[in-house]
Amino acid sequence: MNSGIDADFRDQTSRERTKVEDLFDYDGCKVGRGTYGVVYKAKKKDGSNGEYALKLIEGTGISMSAVREISLLRELKHRNVINLQKVFLSSVDRRVWLLLDYAEYDLWHIIKHHRTAKGSRKAVETPKSMVKSLLYQIIDGIFYLHSNWVLHRDLKPANILVMGEGPERGCVKIADMGFARLFNCPLKPLADLDPVR
Known about the structure:
Layout: H1 3-16, H2 20-23, E1 24-25, E2 30-33, E3 37-44, E4 52-57, H3 64-75, E5 84-90, E6 95-101, E7 105-106, H4 107-119, H5 128-147, E8 150-151, E9 160-162, E10 172-174, E11 181-182
Antiparallel strand pairs: 1-3, 2-3, 3-4, 4-6, 5-6, 7-9, 8-11, 9-10
C-alpha cells in the first residue's frame, strides 16, 4: 500500500475532525481525577448555556479501559448513570476526550461536609427524605447496570455524582466506568491481551 495515500487520508481526516479546543473552554478548570483520566469543567465557546465535564483519558491512544468505558457508556441510557454525549479523538497528540454530564457534587464531598460539620459541633440537618432519595437513586442505577449484565467494580462515594443545578438538581449519576465490564457465566476475558477479568 502506498504510504502517501495513508498520509493524505490522515491529513484530511485531521482537518475534518472536530477538536475539543475549538468547541470548549476548559483551561484551568480541573475538577477531579478518575481511575484512568483527569476531568475538567467545560463551557461551550459559542456562549450557549450549560456546563459539561471533559474527561481526558491518560496516555496516548486508546487503552483497553477507555474502550471498555466508551463502549459501555454508548449503550447505557439511564437517569442514574452518567451520560456520554460525545467522544473526541485527536490525531495530533493522540488523545481521547469524553464529553459527559457535569455534576457539581459527589457523595464523598457530601459525606465529608457532614463529618466536618459534626466534628465542629455545627448543626447540619440532613432531611431523611434526601438520604432516602440518594439511596434509592444509587440502588436504581445499580439495578439498571446489573439488569444489563454490567458490573461497575469501582463503586465508591467519589464515583457517585450528584447534580447541583438545573432541571436534574439532586439527581444521582453513577460515573467512572473504567473498570466496568459485562458479565456472564462463565466469565470470559474481554480480549486476549486484557489483564482485567
